[in-house]
Amino acid sequence: MFTFHRGRKILGISLSILLINMAAIMERADENLLPAVYKEVSEAFNAGPSDLGYLTFIRNFVQGLSSPLAGILVINHARPTVLAMGTLCWALSTAAVGASQHFLQAAFWRAVNGFGLAIVIPALQSFIADSYKDGVRGTGFGLLNFIGNLGGIGGGVLATVMAGQQYWGIQGWRFAFFMMASLSLLIGLLVFLFVVDPRKTIGVNRDTSENFERDELIEKGNSYESSIWTESWTATKAVMKVKTFQIIVLQGIVGSLPWTAMVFFTMWFELIGFSHNKTAALLSVFAVGCSLGSLLGGLIADRMSHIYPHSGRIMCAQFSAVMGIPFSWFLLRVIPQSVSSYFTFAVTLFMMGLTISWNGTAVNAPIFAEVVPVKHRTMIYAYDRAFEGSFSSFAAPLVGILSEQMFGYDSKSIDPIKGSAREASALSKGLLSMMAIPFGLCCLFYTPLYRYFRQDRENARVAGSKTLEIM
Question: What residues does the Major facilitator superfamily (MFS) profile domain cover (predicted)?
Answer without folding.
Answer: 16-451
